[in-house]
Amino acid sequence: MALLEVKDLCITFGGLHAVEDFNLSIEKGQLYGLIGPNGAGKTTVFNLLTGVYKPTRGSIVLDGNDITGHRTEEINRDGIARTFQNIRLFHQLSVLDNVKTALHRSFNYSTFESMFHCGRYRSVEKKMDEKAMEILKVFGLDTVALILSSNLPYGQQRKLEIARAMATEPKILLLDEPAAGMNPNETAELMETISLIRDRFDMTILLIEHDMKLVSGICELLTVLNFGKVLVQGETKEVLSNPEVIRAYLGDE
Ligand SMILES: Nc1ncnc2c1ncn2[C@@H]1O[C@H](COP(=O)(O)OP(=O)(O)OP(=O)(O)O)[C@@H](O)[C@H]1O
Ligand SMILES: [Mg+2]
Q1: Ligand 1 touching residue 85 (CB < 6 A)
Q2: Residue closest by Cα to atom 11 of ligand 1
Q3: Residue having the nearest C-alpha atom to atom 1 of ligand 1
Q4: Average pLDDT rounded to a whole number, residues 214-241
Q5: Residues of the chain with CATH 3.40.50.300
Q6: Distance 12 CA to ligand 1 centre (A)
Q7: Which of 43, 47, 52, 252 to mutate to test the pocket of ligand 1 (most atoms within 8 A of CB)?
Q8: Tens of pLDDT along 137-168?
Q9: What is the rounded CA–CA span in Å between residue 67 and residue 251?
Q10: Is the Cβ atom of 86 under 6 angstroms away from ligand 1?
Q11: Each residue of 47-92: pLDDT tens digit?
Q12: 48 lines ligand 1 (CB under 6 A)
């Protein structure tokens, strides 16, 4: 059974079929790429998978559970975490606290305990600090844990966003153009980080990306979207040499 099984997913905005009859099947541990020209519907697919939009038709099954129509927070609890095309961090918070915001779901104390720093508050905070530091270490961000996230270089901010998503212990991680705006060194480092997450946590990853070097370097399978529809699906090498795919990309220039 696939970890993520998407069937006939559709959404329209006014008259526009932004995503139409979208099908996708991802096995556990796969590193899967979703590519396509600007405006093809890639981010809309992520918004459908994470409950930001409700599909007009179709179904989303994660690990055997039908999550179609669930709300965003529910879907996060169900096991889908994402990052955004335009980076979203709490810029006024430290690197450590950014990760801790994602941990509050699994570590609990009452409002009273938090207001008066009593009861479970101190021990829970300590445990959260330890857990957050553990996660930051994996991403090589433990040495900058106490600085404001807005003071991190861009490449590290992107990494922190992924670290925060991983802190929710998802079953699948969705990354929306993580290499956008990165220089070649940062992109190469990001590629290593993504591979490391997959290998170390046996994580399943669905990646939207325009950087073909990154896509061909780490994705085993690809789906190409064009005008809201699946153009081609299959193994990366074959998909990228498919004439229809080449045409769709050249037509975009
Ligand atoms: N909330 C919305 N209301 C109306 N139209 C929308 C909405 N969200 C997306 N669209 C439209 O749906 C289409 C697909 O947009 P989407 O952002 O999914 O493309 P994309 O493949 O992620 O593109 P890019 O590579 O530029 O990020 C576009 O025509 C976009 O304008
Ligand atoms: Mg997009």
Answers
A1: yes
A2: 18
A3: 13
A4: 95
A5: 1-79+170-253
A6: 11
A7: 43
A8: 999 999 999 999 999 999 999 999 999 999 99
A9: 36
A10: no
A11: 999 999 999 999 999 999 999 999 999 999 999 999 999 989 999 9
A12: no
Return left, alpha or beta for 107; rule: phi > 0 is left, psi -120 to 50 is alpha, else beta: beta
pLDDT digits over 172-191, tens only?
Answer: 999 999 999 999 999 999 99
- For the domain 1-79+170-253, what is the CATH code? 3.40.50.300
Which residues are registered as beta bridge partners of 5? 25, 61
Ligand 1, atom 7, lies closest to the CA of: 13
Q: Is the CB of 33 under 6 A from ligand 1?
A: no
pLDDT at 115 over 80: no
- Residue in 16, 176, 252, 253 to alter for ligand 1 test, most ligand atoms within 8 A of Cβ: 16
Residue 125, both tokens:
């905070």
Q: How far is the CA of 36 from the centre of ligand 2 (A)?
A: 9
